[in-house]
Amino acid sequence: MQLLVKNGVLFYYLKSKNMPRKEADVAYKPEIERKFLVRSFPIEVLRGRECYWIQQAYPRFKRGIRVREKLRNPYIQPPASISSVPDGPTIISEEWQGTITMKARANNNDWRTQIECESPIDLEFVREFSKGAPGVRKARYVIGRFELDIYTSPQLRGLVVMEIELKNAAEQVYIPDGFDVVEVTEDQRFRSASLARLKTRKAMLELLRKYGIALKEDGQNDRANNR
Fold it and tell me: Alpha carbon of 189 to those of 26, 50, 106, 147: distances in Å?
């Protein structure tokens, strides 16, 4: 597989399958984000919220590349608890969307500001690039300007992270009522690319304990302080 950006156009193709080169107009844009680890939140806030099912992978051929499949409104019922979120959509759908994204820090010392380039990509490419690559699965709920991700991959089940994209670095962030969070923007271990590379559930549990979150070993139980 080869991938390059030239004159604002993203090119990609698979040598192994002799596929013709694809191209798509893309634009680099600055992305200013803050990320929060969610210790607890009122689960009922998810009722009626827009939801996406996401599975994404990080191919080994180039650092900073992510491929993703996303399904909007996958008919996941509002969960009664974090652990009841299914590990996948509950319907068969042909409305999956594929994207490929390149990300890099705009400033080597600041993870809040990144440069992002995203383009649609055929699902065939997404699935080919995902083979053997570390990845994650999650249900994403939209709460105002926040995106709340409930991870469902076996080693990450119980992890809840939310993030917000800011208009500028000085913008104030107001956490929704009832949410107990801690900021992890600068903690690279909570980047999805890092989480995808966690080998065991034990490693994730140890990471959460450092932030005062204790989950049960089997992955089927919620944190004790989830409301």
Answer: 28, 27, 19, 19
